[in-house]
Amino acid sequence: MPATTETKYRICPFCEATCGLELVVDGRQVVSVRGDRADVFSQGFICPKAAALPQLDADPDRVRQPLIRRNGRHVPATWEEAFAEVELRLLPILTAHGRDAIAAYLGNPSVHNLALTLYGQALLRTLGSRNIFTASTVDQIPKQLASGLMFGTFLTVAVPDIERCDFLLILGANPYASNGSLWTIPDFPARLRALQARGGCCVVIDPRRSRTATAADRHLFIRPGTDALFLMAVVHALFADGLVNLGRLAVHTDGVDQIEHVARAFAPEVVAAVCGIAASDIRQLAHDLATAKRAAVYGRIGTCTQEFGTLASWLIDVCNVLTGNLDRPGGVMFPLAPAFAANIHGAPGIGRGVMTGRRRSRVRNAPEVQGELPAACMAEEIETPGDGQIRALITIAGNPVLSTPNSARLARALESLEFMVSLDIYDNETTRFADVIFPGLSPLEESHYDAIFPSFGYRNAARYSPPVFAAPDDRPSEWETILRLTGMVSGQGASADIAMLDDFVASTQVQRAVGGEHSPIHGRDPEEILRALTPRRGPERLLDLALRSGPYGDGFGTNPDGLSLGKLEAHPHGIDLGPLQSRIPEVLRTPSGKIELAPPQLLDDVARLRRRLDAPRDGELVLVGRRHLRTNNSWMHNLPVLAGGRSLCTLHVNPEDAARVGLSDGALGRVRSRTGVIEVAVEVTDAIMPGVVSLPHGWGHDQPGTRLRFAAARPGVNSNVLADEDVLDPLSGNAVLNGIPVQLEAVA
Q: Given 55, 205, 284, 594, which residue has the most CB atoms within 10 angstroms?
């Protein structure tokens, strides 16, 4: 019989845009990938990454069975052999040295995977180690911390309401390449064009003229690492020029007077020489923000991965509040996620706010934020002897050897571990050190619901995708693998009853839902709720619970027209839940029930920012990162449809700097920092400001012991060889990956 094709609908797992896809499949093969025009959220938009899904699914380098290290190399093993190896070698470390001797690292792809998001947390809670690390501390934790201190939870992040905005100011972000970050916005280019078509204006502040900056109405270069100074000068101008107008937020905001006081030292005329933006431009932007009918300030990775990341993230929303643009249509607003968000139930003032520093790292005393320690501390915690030394490591969907500072030091540290186990789809620069690798499934063999990104959506929506293909019969789901590891670290051994553990996880979540005072199912019988969730198991059971007890949910019968997983399954293109709505004061979870505009931790750090005014660093050359649409993360580099073509791993150098050191376009340059040296092809361009060079993130696929054949043939260089693990944003512990002092010379 001739093969027949069928159409499947799937949410793209590659980035935060979460675009809806229409896949035509023939048996086990994907024939075509198109945007799903009926998708309520992305409306047919896709970027080039979606076309790589078939290659990722079929990649021969993808790990498909467990691997065990034998005689220095990875060899195939059965699942039982692999779990037995973990039990044999990991549990004695736990018994002899305690829970802090085992660390865990969760990478970026884990938040694009429902099973890893939900069951990874169960593993971490059961492990009970203080040594928890994630990719957040080389990325967005400053924004989450600032938002948490101001609004009460780490995921209460305000995003631009671009569809009603008239003036958009963007700092250190390139949504043309990222498709939005901490801002889930498919087809940003079209939405920006629509803003401009209705007479609106977009201004980009960035040391590099990115694709977003090119499309904007105006672009201003800024000295890397000085965004907080620029923003404080904008705040100064708002007060000095009588432009502050909180509108209806006035009665919901504490701390305005303290902000006025600390901003007095940062007049635009004082800041201009340090940040590189003229005082007149700073004042004009303050007036533009204050006088636009609807304005928004948005910043992202460039404002986070710097020495003042938390201050810059805070001041972005200070500007939004002072101009009355927080929580109003066309300004920045708070999405109402259908599930899994800490701010979707309750009333203002019921929260405790956020706390940090509940524990600290052993070696340098860095504070915990959101339950994790800085990833930049991982190597020293492995290397340094004593109580609490990390002796074993669990990694889940992460490649910190390429993504964290001074990666060469971390690689040496991983090699010294007594034991390491990884759950990953690749034998990569990090997992090559693992003693056991458990494979994940193909994204097309898993269901998909984004647990985190609806909290950042440009619009409220709910969408779910069932698996496109059935997983092989001999391969457990990732949640089952994680539960077996959870059973081991809880003392139940490799033969732990997975069904019983899953029932325990579900029962715990049900107890929490019925016990929540403001939950729609408060006071209900837990056994009744568990029966209503039958026969679902695993992530689908937890998702159904979260949806039905969420703000749009059916309340297990109290709101028959509400959401459930069954309802989403019947709507493959998703369910639109409407534009963003004003949520203050309901969304606030601060102890006061108000916007805490001047948190003491942030005010205390302003003194450090003032000292930066006295250290202009003239003549210093600094490095910043950059990302490209097709190659945002290292795990995309083994896919020819994304990483093929002209090499994108080049060093951008301004013509003035190139001439000064004798470099020409295409020549080889040598870049040095305190931590390392690299040699890389130079691209001379006026898209980078003088005194700044730029290198993309995630490359360096030339390490022995990996199985990434396409990436290894086009390895590029690892920018994090140059990043200094000793330099952190002190409040959040985030790594400083932008504004790194370097020296540049031509290679003879």
A: 205
In whole angstroms, give the CA distance from residue 46 to residue 11. 10
Tell me if the pTM is above 0.85: yes
What are phi and psi for residue 727, nearest 5 degrees? -110, 115
pLDDT in tens, 27-72: 999 999 999 999 999 999 999 999 999 999 999 999 999 999 999 9
Residue with tokens 């290894």: 712
* pLDDT score of 348 more than 70: no
Q: Which of 510, 509, 568, 521 is nearest to 119 (CA)?
A: 509
Backbone dihedral angles phi then psi of residue 271, each to the nearest 5 degrees? -80, -30
Q: What are phi and psi of 371, to 5 degrees?
A: 80, 5
Residue with tokens 């959101």: 370
Cα-based angle 711, 716, 719 (whole degrees, multiple of 5): 120
C-alpha triplet 40, 184, 123: angle, nearest 5°: 105
At 2 the pLDDT is 42
Bridge partners, residue 423, by sequence: 396, 438
Q: Measured on CA atoms in the order 131, 132, 134, 140, is the torsion positive or negative? A: negative
- pLDDT value, residue 680: 98
Contact yes or no for 426/708 (Cβ under 8 A): yes
Instruction: Tell me, letter by letter, the H, E, C secondary structure of 281-331.
Output: HHHHHHHHHHHCCCEEEEECHHHHCCCCHHHHHHHHHHHHHHCCCECCCCC
Measured CA to CA in angstroms, residue 538 lies from 289, 430, 449, 494, 543 at distances of 47, 28, 13, 19, 9
Show the tokens assigned to 220. 């201003």
**Quick one: what percent of the chain has pLDDT higher than 90?**
95
CA-based radius of gyration for the chain: 25
Greatest pairwise CA separation for the chain in angstroms? 79
432, 402 contact by CB (below 8 A) = no
Task: With both helix axes pointing from N to C terminus, report the angle between 498-515 and 114-127 in degrees, rounded to the nearest 10.
Answer: 90
Using one digit for the tens of pLDDT, what is the confidence trace for 164-217? 999 999 999 999 999 999 999 999 999 999 999 999 999 999 999 999 999 999
Residue 430 contacts residue 400 (beta carbons within 8 Å): yes
**Structural element, H or E, at residue 415:** helix 407-415
Nearest residue to 665 (alpha-carbon basis) of 682, 653, 679, 680: 682
**Residue range 628-673, pLDDT digits in tens:** 999 988 889 999 999 999 999 999 999 999 999 999 999 999 999 9
Dist. CA 104–CA 86, nearest whole Å: 14
Task: Report the distance separating Cα 245 and Cα 434, nearest Å.
Answer: 56
- Distance (Å) of CA 459 to CA 5, 166, 178, 428: 33, 17, 18, 36
Asked if residue 455 lies in contact with residue 583, where contact means CB atoms within 8 angstroms, the answer is no
